[in-house]
Amino acid sequence: PYDVLVVGGGPAGASAAIYAARKGIRTGLIAERFGGQPLETLGIENLIGTPYIEGVQLGRQLEEHVKKYPVDLMNLQKAVKLEKKDLIEVSLANGATLKSKAVILSTGARWRDLGIPGEQRFKNKGVAYCPHCDGPLFSGKDVAVIGGGNSGIEAAIDLAGLVNHVTVLEFLPELKADKILQKKLASLTNVTVLTNVETKEILGDEQVTGLNYQVRGSKETIHLELAGVFVLIGLVPNTQWLEGTIDLTDRHEIVTDKVGATNIPGVFAAGDCTDTVYKQIIVSMGSGATASLGAFDYLIRN
Ligand code: FAD
Asked: What are the annotated disulfide bridges (predicted)?
């Protein structure tokens, strides 16, 4: 068996595996797709100490770094079940079962897509999902934020300080964000809020140039000219396979404590799949290190 088995090969999993292997303990890592979300990212400008790196390059460097240590790296393997017996058993989609004394879950998350024409085509070309990451790219320009929940309204407030103008589009008749955020939003002079509207299409040439929407119930299409569309309609953690096995929040995030421990002894979690408040690369790497040190501490006490 492994001492530590990491499930997930994004920034959190890579960090957890490196910290474990550096303790000289037997470490394995399985990943459905090693590299994780950075593989879908064009440029990263907020990984401190690295002023700029392309996402694909970061994915490569994570792999290179993990491979500097004797980690059993099993790429293109999907975990489908976790069971605590004497050891912790992780079953894979290919039928194999791996056993380990401790497990670190770092299966990440994915942004919910709008699923409208233009969204896929203009991903990273004006369609964005993370204001902390891509906000500065739209300095002085006009953007839209789709989604009037907390994350959408936080994004709109954040972006209003960076860009020329923000239009918020919410499908429901009213914003769902906390009142205090709505009040702050209403105090800003360069934000327009549209409720009860459906975004129909994102348009552009090389880059986004605008979007079309309809007031729900009407057939009239209205065009907005803008340079960026931030889609903030929810982040979905990759935890479906853990449903009923491990404590999750109502947003399906793994509940963790200060050292990354879950409710199952020996099972730790890190990164975007957990209830950590901020979902970022640097945060995920930090929580991967934390969970790994937590797991090591667990091993020497058990
Ligand atoms: P992920 O990166 O999601 O990795 C999860 C890993 O788990 C993957 O290897 C996946 O294949 C694997 N996995 C999932 N399910 C299973 C399973 N059942 N079995 C086995 N393996 C599984 N953050 C920044 O800090 N700066 C940015 O500029 C930035 N830009 C972004 C741009 C885009 C388009 C996106 C989508 C995200 C961006 N982020 C950015 C967010 C950042 O990428 C994430 O916060 C970070 O990647 C989370 O790391 P993670 O390791 O927790 O999860």
From this structure: 130-133
